[in-house]
């Protein structure tokens, strides 16, 4: 849960191996196409690569193995390691002191500010020369494509979704809503499924802890709102808006109509467990996490679950949910030749058959244990690419793989989490949501305004952007 709720980090599902990054255990050889993207350098090149803290021995061992594989093919490259982990409050100091590594991992939120501050290299030429440039997932790549130029390569990611228990719908004789659904469609379905006497809620929102604010932000985004903006180097709260008010009014309807669990104070694990136990028809979560818990822990059949995008506020609107993910970027202070080699290092083990082999092994291991493999619905590659087709063909061979409706991927839209102090914002919004769920005649507009003022003065005003 901590990993999932950290600003812009990826959801922690059973399929995390589906996105190789520095230090993952995925065995892979280099892509021939990636190797051809960078000409043979004329000098010795040193790359300072992002590593892990000393106590993470296994991850560092895996990184060493990957370095050795790369050096075997590129003997002119030397590596140094740096265990600094990206922080939006530290990157300015690292760049000013020229101590940032050659390449590092950052979050989906960081694209524009890193570009604006010139703290990340323009890798457009390297990407364009890469044979797999057209195979990358456009939605996942979006946060690091700024003004038509590319500044980062996605590792993995998630977009928030809502998982429905089809069996509860069938038992009530209620048809599933259209996948291109709206807030009204969600409310209508929740009303028809809701059965408080049997302890079954129409919809399960997270109501406790920062995850409560994280859940609610999806409706803020779907209404066209945002959390914050940068104004002359200052972080300014923007969630006190018409969109924010509409999102709160939607939550108030859920409570006023008794469509949520009687014990609504549910954290991340609590909400997923309630759904897995059949105590709610719908739950919101990152990508396939809710399905994983329901199937592999709750014993619900994979055929009784379906994953929907966040509903649009009105018909024809965008299905915008919170997008999180990890991205590899390159230090712009490195010389051009080093930047090109760093790109080759970053992408060296993408699009490999060895990765498919490791995925197959995981699926078969799960099958032997009578468990279901839950793939991520979004990966760094396009499903329509040759590699994507190979991956899809592999999944299709097994009956213990959860499948997503193709409409999901055509409808959903992702918007990155707030860049600065997202967790503190989420925690304050959790207090608002709890007030909405407990106070009969709460003044939504004043509550939102008061919270915005508090977050501004106590949190955002204290953010120092170097």
TrEMBL record:
Compositionally biased spans, kind Low complexity: 8-42
Domain of life: Bacteria
Region called Disordered, residue ranges: 8-62
Biased composition regions of type Basic and acidic residues, renumbered to the chain: 52-62
Record Pfam families: SBP_bac_1
CDD domains in the record: PBP2_TMBP_like
Protein name from the UniProt record: Sugar ABC transporter substrate-binding protein
């Amino acid at each position: 849960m901590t990993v999932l709720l950290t600003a812009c980090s990826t959801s922690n599902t059973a399929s995390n191996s589906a996105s190789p990054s520095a230090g993952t255990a995925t065995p892979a050889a280099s892509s021939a196409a990636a190797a051809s993207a960078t000409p043979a350098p004329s000098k010795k090149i040193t790359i300072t690569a992002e590593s892990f803290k000393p106590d993470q021995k296994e991850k560092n061992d895996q990184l060493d193995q990957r370095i050795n594989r790369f050096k075997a093919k590129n003997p002119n490259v030397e590596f140094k390691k740096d265990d600094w982990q990206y922080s939006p409050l530290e990157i300015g100091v690292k760049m000013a002191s020229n101590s940032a590594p050659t390449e590092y991992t950052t979050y989906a939120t960081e694209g524009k500010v890193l570009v604006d501050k010139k703290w990340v290299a323009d890798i457009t030429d390297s990407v364009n020369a890469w044979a797999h440039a057209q195979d990358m997932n456009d939605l996942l790549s979006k946060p690091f494509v700024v003004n038509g130029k590319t500044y980062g390569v996605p590792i993995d990611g998630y977009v928030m979704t809502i998982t429905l228990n089809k069996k509860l719908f069938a038992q009530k004789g209620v048809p599933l809503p259209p996948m291109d659904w709206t807030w009204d469609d969600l409310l209508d379905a929740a009303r028809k499924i809701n059965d408080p006497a049997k302890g079954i809620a129409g919809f399960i929102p997270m109501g406790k802890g920062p995850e409560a604010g994280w859940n609610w932000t999806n409706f803020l985004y779907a209404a066209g709102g945002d959390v914050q903006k940068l104004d002359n180097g200052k972080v300014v709260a923007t969630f006190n808006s018409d969109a924010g008010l509409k999102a709160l009014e939607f939550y108030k309807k859920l409570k006023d109509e008794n469509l949520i669990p009687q014990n609504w104070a549910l954290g991340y694990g609590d909400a997923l467990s309630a759904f897995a136990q059949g105590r709610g028809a719908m739950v919101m979560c990152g990508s396939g996490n809710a399905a994983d818990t329901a199937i592999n822990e709750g014993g619900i059949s994979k055929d009784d679950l379906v994953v929907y995008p966040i509903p649009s506020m009105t018909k024809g609107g965008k299905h915008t949910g919170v997008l999180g993910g990890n991205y590899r970027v390159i230090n712009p202070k490195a010389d051009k030749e080093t930047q090109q080699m760093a790109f080759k290092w970053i992408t060296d083990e993408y699009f490999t058959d060895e990765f498919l082999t490791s995925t197959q092994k995981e699926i078969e291991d799960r099958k032997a244990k009578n468990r279901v493999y839950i793939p991520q619905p979004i990966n760094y590659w396009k499903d329509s690419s040759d590699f994507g087709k190979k991956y899809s063909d592999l999944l299709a061979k097994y009956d213990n793989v959860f499948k997503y409706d193709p409409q999901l991927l055509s409808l959903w839209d992702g918007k990155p989490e707030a860049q600065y102090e997202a967790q503190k914002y989420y925690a304050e919004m959790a207090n608002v949501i709890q007030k909405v769920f407990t106070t009969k005649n709460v003044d939504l507009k004043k509550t939102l305004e008061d919270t915005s003022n508090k977050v501004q003065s106590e949190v955002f005003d204290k953010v120092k952007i170097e």
